[in-house]
RNA sequence: GGGCCUGUAGCUCAAUUGGUUAGAGCAGAGCGCUCAUAACGCUUUGGUUGGGGGUUCGAGUCCCUCCGGGCCUACCA
């Protein structure tokens, strides 16, 4: 029994996430959370929407809604979809919550007290027509280097030259197209990350067991060029956490908000408070997860995220926590993922390319997607979704191997013994031969799950399912029955117990089908098995069961072709 | 430009960190079974590990080089 705090990178509010986003953070985090709970650990699994920033404002404007209203609606949509995918968050919060506002301001105050905030007056491009300062990316113009006429203020996409917005020829607002731009002075707060470079470096050096992807990105930022740079943590926007020093006003920073990347990770903490508040619990309830002086010393904290999020989680957020001088829990392990590509290109939210969470659930239930995505998680390199591969994996693994096992066993039993676990006989060593490696694979499965080796865990689980078929084929109760019904009964008894065991161990991957298996076996016993001998006796003779509906249906070629063409273009 | 990752069977991926004959699943071929969702099982074909060079008793693994793919490069989040 241990205590595990798990967070998934928080999805941005401006639209529905695609399957690449899902498999890069929320889904593997859910897999891990479900597994640890099933093994009896105490788990707090948190996620939220990341709501602040320019893109949210623009998306709201496009939808013709006030930004707070837009975010509230989109939170509802994302919450519904995460429920649809069976993501088992203990709390799905919002970075715009009152809790996060207070905590973000608190951290800023502490950092200021520690001398880790400096004020910088800088020049930024202001668009009079848009009535806002424009982030570099939202300024377009002609590249001075190559002449490309849609270069952005941070970089020319055509010749990849890094630019300053003032380098652009004929600059215009990418939002409105207005050329009525001017450079204005504005004051911002910078987090002095450079002052914490040594501390962060030493901390990263300790993390020898982290994925290479995680540490190499962190090291790159720490050591590249002049080393870790200070980062601006405020913006000239309306939508965000107002800049304050704790409870107090921050002279000179009126009307400004914190940068999303400052308040978003703090939401991991605030979300725990949202969780406690919602249930009427005291602060102690969430502080025991987050404050090492209040019980979080023995918590193991694991974060899940796509590789694009790594710098903020390995450097900026730890800098915030360390710099506060307060005993907040630092992350113990960061599991990062590469990208999932879609049929030869990238999934893209902005371009509407690929399959999005809502569309996926319209087509097929969550388990189908969960199984494919997790068993193909982009752990070592980018991986690719194709409809053919999806169809083949789902049909073979879920319908043929697992679903059909449950079907053939329960239906055979019903026809020969009725819908009751049959009694009599004994399964001898010869009959057990085909289950030789079962315990070993079961242990390997657990080891992979604990190590968050997602694809290896999926392969081990599939292998356990396959062993059921191999064994059953060898034991052949349909043949044995003719000569020795008692022996056939014993075989079927073990087979039915295997279904229950599959229901338990498969639950982190395919929770709905697992639930269906357990309820068909009419058992509440979800205790995690560690050996075949435990499995064999869970359901005793005379225990009733029902033949379940087919656990999975197969994807027909015509359907696949239909989806293939339907999702070939971009989402409108 | 710089940095990091990556290239293994038709496809998706392994390979105990330098150790025997590079392994699985899918797809393909053959056989078997008839409980089951035309499902299951057994056997089997298939690789100059992107190309070239080097180190080593030994290289998929380390070094160099070339070719291809991807990501990051700090104001998208």
Total number of helices? 20
Per DSSP, what share of the residues sits in E-state strands of 2 or more residues?
Answer: 5-15%
Residue-averaged pLDDT:
91
Side by side, the strands of the main sheet go 3-2-1-15-16
Question: Summarize this, please?
Answer:
The protein is an alpha/beta fold. Helices cover 47% and strands 15% of the residues. 45% of the residues are buried.
Tell me about this structure.
The protein is of the alpha/beta class and 572 residues long. The chain has 3 domains: 3-114 and 197-205 and 260-337, Rossmann fold, CATH 3.40.50; 117-191, Methionyl-trna Synthetase, domain 2 (Beta Complex); 384-536, Isoleucyl-tRNA Synthetase, Domain 1, CATH 1.10.730. Helix content is 47%, strand content 15%. It has helices at residues 19-38, 54-63, 67-84, 98-113, 197-206, 212-223, 260-278, 283-290, 310-324, 357-363, 366-375, 387-417, 429-432, 438-450, 454-475, 477-483, 485-505, 511-520, 532-536, 557-566; strands spanning 3-8, 42-49, 91-94, 117-127, 132-133, 139-142, 151-152, 169-173, 181-191, 231-232, 234-235, 244-245, 248-249, 257-258, 299-306, 333-337, 340-342, 345-346, 383-385. The strands form 6 sheets. The protein has a 5-stranded parallel sheet with strand order 3-2-1-15-16, with helices on both faces. Strands 5-4-9-10 form a 4-stranded antiparallel sheet. A 3-stranded antiparallel sheet has the order 7-6-8, with no helix packed on it. A hairpin with a 2-residue loop joins strand 17 (340-342) and strand 18 (345-346). The mean pLDDT is 91. The structure holds one RNA strand of 77 nucleotides.
């Amino acid at each position: 029994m241990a205590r595990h705090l798990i967070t998934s990178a928080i999805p941005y509010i401006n639209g529905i996430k695609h399957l690449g986003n899902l498999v890069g953070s929320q889904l593997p985090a859910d897999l891990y959370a479900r597994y640890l709970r099933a093994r009896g650990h105490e788990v707090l699994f948190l996620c939220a929407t990341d709501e602040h920033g320019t893109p949210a404002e623009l998306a709201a404007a496009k939808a013709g809604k006030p930004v707070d209203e837009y975010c509230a609606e989109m939170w509802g949509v994302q919450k519904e979809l995460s429920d649809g995918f069976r993501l088992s968050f203990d709390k799905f919060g919002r970075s715009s919550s009152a809790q996060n506002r207070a905590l973000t301001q608190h951290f800023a105050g502490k950092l200021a007290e520690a001398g880790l905030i400096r004020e910088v007056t800088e020049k930024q491009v202001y668009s009079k027509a848009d009535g806002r300062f424009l982030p570099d990316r939202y300024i377009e113009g002609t590249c001075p280097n190559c002449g490309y006429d849609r270069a952005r203020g941070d970089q020319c996409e055509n010749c990849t030259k890094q630019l300053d917005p003032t380098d652009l020829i004929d600059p215009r607002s990418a939002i409105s197209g207005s050329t009525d731009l001017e450079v204005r002075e504005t004051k911002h707060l910078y987090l002095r990350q450079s002052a914490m470079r040594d501390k962060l470096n030493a901390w990263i050096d300790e993390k020898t067991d982290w994925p290479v992807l995680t540490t190499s990105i962190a090291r790159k930022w720490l050591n590249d060029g002049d080393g870790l740079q200070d980062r601006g943590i405020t913006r000239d926007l309306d939508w965000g956490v107002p800049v304050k020093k704790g409870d107090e006003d921050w002279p000179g920073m009126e009307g400004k908000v914190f940068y999303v990347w400052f308040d978003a990770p703090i939401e991991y903490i605030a979300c725990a408070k949202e969780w406690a508040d919602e249930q009427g619990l005291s602060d102690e309830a969430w502080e025991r997860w987050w404050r090492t002086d209040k019980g979080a010393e023995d918590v193991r904290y694991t974060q899940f995220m796509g590789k694009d999020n790594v710098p903020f989680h390995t450097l900026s957020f730890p800098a915030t926590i360390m710099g506060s001088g307060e005993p907040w829990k630092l992350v113990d392990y960061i599991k990062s993922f590469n990208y999932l590509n879609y049929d030869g290109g990238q999934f893209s939210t902005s371009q509407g390319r690929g399959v999005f969470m809502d569309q996926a659930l319209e087509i097929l239930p969550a388990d189908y997607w969960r199984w494919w995505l997790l068993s193909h998680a982009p752990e070592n390199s980018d991986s690719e979704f194709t409809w053919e591969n999806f169809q083949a994996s789902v049909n073979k693994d879920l319908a043929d191997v697992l679903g059909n096992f449950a079907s053939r066993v329960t239906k055979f039993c019903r026809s020969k013994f009725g819908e009751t676990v049959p009694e009599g006989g004994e399964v001898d060593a010869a009959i057990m031969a085909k289950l030789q490696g079962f315990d070993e694979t079961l242990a390997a499965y657990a080891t992979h799950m604990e190590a968050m080796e997602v694809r290896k865990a999926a392969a081990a689980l599939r292998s356990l399912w396959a062993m059921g078929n191999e064994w059953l084929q060898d034991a052949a109760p349909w043949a044995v029955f003719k000569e020795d019904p008692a022996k056939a009964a014993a075989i079927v008894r073990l087979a039915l117990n295997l279904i229950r065991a599959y229901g338990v161990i498969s639950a982190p991957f395919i929770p709905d089908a697992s639930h269906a298996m357990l309820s068909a076996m009419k058992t509440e016993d979800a205790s995690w098995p560690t050996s075949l001998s435990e499995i064999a006796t869970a359901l005793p003779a005379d225990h009733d069961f029902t033949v379940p509906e087919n656990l999975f249906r197969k994807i027909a070629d015509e359907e696949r072709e239909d989806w293939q063409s339907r999702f070939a273009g971009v989402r409108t």
